[in-house]
Amino acid sequence: MLALLRALWLILLHTFKKRVTVQYPERKAYVPPRWRGRIILSRDPDGGERCVACCLCAVACPVDCIALQATEDKTGRRYPETFRINFSRCIFCGYCEEACPTYAIQLTTDYEMGEYRRANLVYEKEDLLISGQGKYPGYNFYRVAGLEIGGKAKGEAENERPPVDVRGLLP
Amino acid sequence: MSTLQYLILIPGLIFVLMSVASGLIWLERRLLGIWQDRYGPNRVGPFGILQVLADILKVFTKEDWVPPFADKPVFIIAPAIIVVTVLITFAVVPFGPRAGLADLNIGLLFFLAMSSLGVYSVALAGWASDSKYSLLGGLRASAQMISYEVFMGLSLMGVVMLAGSFNLRTIVLAQKHMWNIVPQFLGFIIFMIAGIAETHRLPFDLPEAESELVAGFHSEYSGMKFGMFFLGEYFGITLISAMMTTLFLGGWFGPVLPPIVWFAVKTLAFICFFILLRATLPRPRYDQLMSFGWKAMFPLSLVNLLVTGGLILAGR
Question: Is A7's Cβ below 8 Å from some Cβ in B?
Fold first, then answer.
């Protein structure tokens, strides 16, 4: 009986306790920097697209929400012609970011993506592409990769030696 | 009073009670929120008070579904019973020295009879739904009723003996110098426990028991039929609080403020206490409730009756 009255009193004292609720639209909850939120496509330091349309993100995606079409520009550089993410399917697992060899696809801390119409949740390439470099500044895939594209021959990449001429006589 | 006055007063009272009941939904959610370190509904309108309006609009747009396996006429009439019986009982509640609809000389018996009839609503709803959860809820309601109705009536007999009348107005007037809560403290506690059980409020919400029976007797109900059960529950809380005010806390008596305000304040205090009980106490098993009713409350109310009667006889 006494325990009962004590419980009533203790609950009554909660009237003056601090609320745990975060009054959301006015005050935002803390979001850790590694939060897996809205997916973006980043650019390299020169302003070009990082994505090389390798489709690894689409393969890694467990819910198949990424669809892209690869193409090449006249310098021989691959890029996605279309890049579409269906956010009504996306589970924000971050596998696409892990799979990406060029740091192009990244998950951000933005989580406010509510829409009244389902179709609006399908993000096209122009919705996904941002102007900045995202989480990995200063990285440019074509500058470090030993791939030959227009304007850059083999052996001209950073930390890359010129190719060995296997038919030459000198070592 | 003339017929015309009744024609104005009755809809007026129903309107006030509707507003009180819907206000209570908001109040309960807010208070529960506060006692669980949350805010509760605070978005719609000032302090979230229009939340109720939004909820009512929503409940009217819900599909009014009657399951094909249900006993249709009983299924439909069950939610009406609880609202009607509780509303009828409000006719005998004396809100002020001259306020109140009927001045029945058996007002207290009328209250007991009507609140017992209210159990039919729950039992019939449980039966007519033809679903195991509903049936279990209805069974529990019946088991609960036979264990608390007896000592509910007995706990009030002390009050009747002190006032010498079943008329609620006379009972209030008999408390002019000392509220019944002092000489009838035991009766007050017993009646409060019985009242909580009567309205199926937590901790005695065994017929509903969300955590085990889905929603108990109203598992199969939707739309405004479900809303009627809800309304009936909140009417019931208001009624029990008003009755406790009338019978034990001196009704409209109080200094400075006008009588009707005193009545409202006391009733509201009891309602808040009910909500505090809900926020605090876990639900007992229903065999625990029955043994508590028969082995503790029933003998206690008999002792209360005996001692009160003895003291009145000795004092004569």
Answer: yes
ipTM of the complex: 0.74
CATH of domain A39-156: 3.30.70.3270
B39 shares contact with chain A (CB less than 8 Å): yes
Is A79 in contact with A49 (CB distance < 8 Å)?
A: yes
CB-neighbour burial class of residue B306 (10 A; exposed 0-12, middle 13-18, buried 19+):
exposed
Closest CA to A85 of A49, A54, A61: A61
Beta-carbon separation of B37 and A12 below 8 A: no
Question: Is the predicted pLDDT of residue A62 greater than 90, yes or no?
Answer: yes
Q: What is the mean pLDDT of residues A1-22?
A: 87
The 3 state secondary structure assigned to chain A is CHHHHHHHHHHHHHHHCCCCCCCCCCCCCCCCCCCCCCEEECECCCCCECCCCCCHHHHHCCCCCEEEEEEECCCCCEEEEEEEEECCCCCCCCHHHHHCCCCCEEECCCCCCCCCCHHHHEECHHHHECCCCCCCCCCCHHHHCCCCECCECCCCCCCCCCCCCCCCCCC
Lowest-confidence segment of A97-111, B56-70, B196-210 by average pLDDT: B196-210
d(CA A22, nearest CA chain B) in Å: 9
For the stretch A108-117, pLDDT in tens is 999 889 999 9
**Inter-chain CB proximity A8 and B280 less than 8 Å:** yes
The pLDDT tens digits of the residues spanning B85-143 come to 988 888 888 887 776 777 888 888 888 888 888 888 888 888 888 888 888 888 888 88
Q: Which of B269, B247, B265, B248 is nearest to B257 (CA)?
A: B265
Which A-chain residues 12-71 have CB contacts (< 8 A) with chain B? 12, 14-15, 17-21, 23
Nearest-CA distance from A17 to chain B in Å? 7
Residue A171 has pLDDT above 70, yes or no: no
